[in-house]
Amino acid sequence: MDEVEVVVAHTERATLRVGDVFLKVDSDQTNTDIEVKAMALAPIPTPEILWRKPPVLALAALSGSALGRLGEPSPASSAAWAAAGAAIRKLHDAPLPPWSSRRSLEEIRTRLDDECEGLVANDVLPADVVTRNREVAEAALRPWTPVFIHGDLQITHVFVDGDQVTGVIDWSEAAPGDALYDLAILTLGHEEHLDDVIAGYGIDVDRAVIRAWWSWRSLCAARWLIEHGFDPDTPGAEFDVLRSQM
């Protein structure tokens, strides 16, 4: 029998791997509903759904390996990063999914303000780091034309084999949203590959907004990461991203 590998586990969800099958267990079936619908609509490779028996979703493993990990040099080539950019552009050019955005602009702004206040009040980060990144993040808080976004496009969610994208996983945050948010999450902590991604994406983008989303994501993710047993202060991770914006 294949060994059971715990890919990720916290109080909200867990993912296990058994051989070539991934078993995802989510406490909120709304997330799984969106994931299944998004994968059916996305015009890019996604994992095959083997079966679903709530609260478990079984997916076939993708070929290749993840584009990289936050805090570590990416083993993928520049061409692979460009291919990821091209895949994102194809997703963003697709028709919008038939459900509403999961966050309004006002909710995004309010969350940022609340998280910044908590980081300072609890001495998680120096006040000047939080204040500076709150200023940087402001550039992202503007109206945008919504596109079909993945919504959580971390580099561990994009699989490549050589210079080809073999699939994208974890679609529970998919929704209409800001195209530059996807590009920012993919390149968070890997600024050295931003040019490759933009080249593959095929059109010029506002890099100041991408940097703004780096700050927003890093500020807003910190408390959740700490509460769920992850360390945003590991080298190359969220706190280093915030410090680099100073």
UniProtKB/TrEMBL annotation:
Key words of the record: Transferase
Positions of the Aminoglycoside phosphotransferase domain: 39-208
Cross-referenced PANTHER family: AMINOGLYCOSIDE PHOSPHOTRANSFERASE DOMAIN-CONTAINING PROTEIN-RELATED, AMINOGLYCOSIDE PHOSPHOTRANSFERASE-RELATED-RELATED
Protein name: Aminoglycoside phosphotransferase
Superkingdom of the organism of origin: Bacteria
Keyword Transferase in record: yes
A GO term, aspect molecular function: transferase activity
Annotated InterPro entries: AGP_Transferase (IPR051678), Aminoglycoside_PTrfase (IPR002575), Kinase-like_dom_sf (IPR011009)
Keyword Transferase in record: yes
Source organism per UniProt: Luteipulveratus mongoliensis
